[in-house]
Structures are given as C-alpha cells and as structure tokens.
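Suppose a colleague, Dr. K., hands you the sequence of a protein chain of 378 amino acids and asks what its three-dimensional shape might be. Before reaching for any lab equipment, you can write down a predicted structure in token form. Begin with the sequence itself:
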Amino acid sequence: MSDITITECRTFPEHFAFFALPRRLYRNDPNWVPPLLFELWQVLYPRYNALLRLGPHAHLLARRNGRVVGRLGVGIDENLNARKNRREGYLTLFEAENDYAIAQALFDAGEKWLAERGMTAWTGPQSPSNGDDYRGLLVKGFDSPPVLMNSYNPPYYQEFFERYGFVKQFDRLAFRIDLSQGEPERFARLAETVQERYGFHVDQVDLRRIHEEFADVKVICDNSWPEEWPDMIPPTMEEIQAEADRLLPLAESDLVHIARSDEGKPIGFSVTLPDYNQVLRKMKGRLLPFGWLIFLRERKKIDAGRIFILMVDKEWHRKGVSAALYHANYQAALRRGWKWGEGGTVHEFNRKMVADAEGAGGKLYKIYRIYRKELAPA
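The predicted structure, expressed as tokens, is then:
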C-alpha cells in the first residue's frame, strides 16, 4: 500500500474529483445510473446537507501515483449517538477500483479519523444525506439497474468489506411488485373493508400545501418510529423540511398519501416516486445543455416507481392502514400505466412491513447490507 496516499478533501478540485470518480469506475456498466451532478455536489456541503450539520465529517480520496482510485465519506451523527447512548461513526459514498489495497487504505484512514474522535465502532454504508437514499451495500440483485435513490455497486465491494472485518449488522430488503395483472381483487377489498371497520381514510396530499402538512408528518414519524432501529431516529422538523425540499421536485400529488382517522388524527403516510432513474440513465447525470429536454421527453415513458416511505402510527398497526396506503399507490400506478413497482427498502427485522410488502404481491429481488465494525482505540 506504500504507493497509495489518502488525503482529505478541502478544495473545490478535490471535491470535484471525489464526486467524479464513479463516472470512470462505472463507464462500462450498463446498470449504473449516474446521479445528477448538482444533487451529488450538494450532498458534500453542510449548507445543503442536514446530516453534515449533525457532527464532524470528512471526505477522503485515495490516490496512486497521483491518480484518484478510491473515495470514502466518514462522519459522526452526534444526535443519533446521544439518543442511542453510544459512540459510533458512519461511512458512506465508498467507491474503489478492484484492488483490495485501495479499500484497505481508505478503511484504515477512516478508522483512524473516527478513533481520534473517540468513536468505538462504525457502521455503513449509510445514507449520505440521512434520508432513505443510498443506504446499504448491494449484495443481491446485480442483474438490473437500481430504482431511484437506491444503491448500486460492483459485487467485489462485499468481499472488500468482509475481508477488512466488517460484519453484517442487518439487511434492507427491496420487493418488486408486478402490476401487469392489475391489483389483486382481494387486496382492494381488504383496503376498503378496513377503512370502514376501523374508521380512517386515505387522501392525496396537495403538494402546493405540503409545508402545512409537515406537522402531521412529524406526528406520524414520532408515533411510528421503532425504538429498535439501530441506525435511524425520528427526524427533526428541520430534517423533514430538508428531505421534503429534496424530494418535492420529483414528487407527484397522486403518489403522496396521508391516512387520518375519521376524527382527523394523522396515522400514516406514504411517498411513492416515479423511477426517474429510467430518465437519468439517458441524461447521463447532466441537466445542461440538453439534459432537461431529455427529461421532459422521457419522463412520460417511465413505467415504474418506488414506494419510498410508508409509515404507520404504532397504535394503528394491524388495522390495515398500510394495506390502504398500498391500495392508494396501486391505483395511482395503474392509472399511470406502470408495469411494476418497488416496495423498499425495508429493514429485515421489521417483520410487519416485510409481511405488508409480500401481502401486496412483492417478491424479494434486491438486498442492501449495513455493516458494523468495532474500532481499536486511537
């Protein structure tokens, strides 16, 4: 490894090299989807990224003979650590050429950086924005492109992580739902029956008034968040607003739903997004000079979507709220002529949501793994 050097990004050219690396690594991979350049650029700066405001962070570059050959983001979510009473760091945005020495050098540097700040373990890959995007290392499902905001990586990354000593903490599961035969009749009947029986209803959200809905979304998050989730806690209002601002340009009113009791209490919500990855692949990550024209032309051809978020108040579990939300998404997808959809990603230990996804007709087709490793004291 003596010919590999690790440096922390501090200048514009270094940050540019950080986010440009995947374009070279994946240039011959037909399943890789280049993210929008301006979106990835924003992920690297605290001004635009709420996660980076929650604690110290660093973006590391690996070079061999002056050539960039790998990258790694590391950081500390002090809010999460305080809530969970622990001292753990996270890793994100890992990429490297197919040479374990590069990964080892990056992981060594990441461990050193975190240990010097008193951390005792680290986990990842985590979302670079503390959202539901790009969490986990793809370990199953390399035969198709990822849907919007899901991870993609070559199979050899798994060997790099496990060879270094990372162990599986848990998996996040993605389910493919075939829409070609329409919605199962029994599922539609169930969704209608439970709403009448338990006294609730599902409405579309008017995106023009989305900021007025934030208070209800916060209530649902607080009342539905499982305490046992090791890597996530209920978002603050600032984080909800930041995530909404990021998703709003991609959202469509008929795909965002909120469930309320007949007395008006917010009890569940879901956000489904069209699979804009189908368009981004053709845009090659660029809006200019002609990417926006491709976007306007090709967005009408999108034939799939992802149920990005689905949460239900714990007091309303086993009352069919998630089934009613799935039903609303089914109907919206069928009106759009979609051929399939993705439910995910779902923590493997969230057995209720796994059962809901399977009950909606989902078949497990991709797995994203979160790893954990103890750190040696600095």
